[in-house]
Write a structure and sequence with these properties.
single chain; binds guanosine-5'-monophosphate; alpha/beta; 4-stranded mixed sheet; 21% strand; Rossmann fold; 195 residues
Length: 195
């Protein structure tokens, strides 16, 4: 008898400006079967971001209500805004046997690791710190104050790569996406072998 396919929880972190969104876009092109966990946030949408797709954008009172209702698998305050992963959305995907990707910060990942240690935890690093700071400045999506906070936090976050089982350096978007895909395949093999 074949075993039902078990969905894999994949957590991807990395400092702001490292190119997580671009890598994820490529990853979903290469592997459209992967699901994305749309987080809730109180941060205002950036140009081009679509509600319910990039994030579910909510007000702060609404976010606090969702905390009370235990809607979050984890939540954190990042760059002075709230971000949270929907427990319901993640559990539904895993129960359907789907692989689901969470793009969350290091605090959130630490929390998820405690609850779901069987997940795959990946940290994306930049080729150099200088390049990371340049990318953040060049992005031009934040106010000067928000940019300064992001730069400081990005350097702190970079130091936390050591907590991750898997670290990928983002030199080339396509290569990084393919490396992540290989890690996902290897993790499925490991789980299958353990059954
Ligand atoms: P951004 O505002 O650039 O989209 O995201 C800022 C940071 O928040 C990134 O490090 C991103 O990974 C993190 N983030 C996004 N969604 C979540 C979430 O649901 N939970 C946590 N803990 N962090 C999140």
């Amino acid at each position: 008898m074949t075993q039902p396919r078990i969905g894999l929880l994949i957590v991807i972190s990395g400092p702001s400006g490292v190119g997580k969104d671009t890598v994820l876009r490529r990853l979903f092109e290469l592997a459209p079967h992967l699901k994305y966990s749309v987080s809730y946030t109180t941060r205002p949408p950036r140009p081009g971001e679509v509600d319910g797709h990039s994030y579910t954008f909510v007000s702060e009172p609404e976010f606090l209500r969702l905390i009370e209702q235990k809607e979050f698998l984890e939540w954190a305050r990042v760059y002075d805004q709230y971000y949270g992963t929907s427990r319901r959305r993640v559990e539904a995907a895993l129960n359907r046997g789907e692989d689901i990707i969470l793009k969350i910060d290091v605090q959130g990942a630490t929390f998820v690791r405690k609850r779901m240690p069987e997940g795959l935890f990946i940290f994306i690093t930049p080729p150099s710190t200088e390049e990371l700071l340049n990318r953040l400045t060049g992005r031009n999506t934040e106010s000067p104050q928000a940019l300064e906070i992001r730069q400081k936090e990005a350097l702190v976050e970079l130091g936390l790569a050591k907590d991750y089982e898997h670290v990928v350096c983002n030199r080339d978007v396509d290569e990084t996406a393919r490396e992540i895909l290989a890690m996902i395949a290897a993790e499925h093999d490991r789980h299958r072998a353990a059954v």
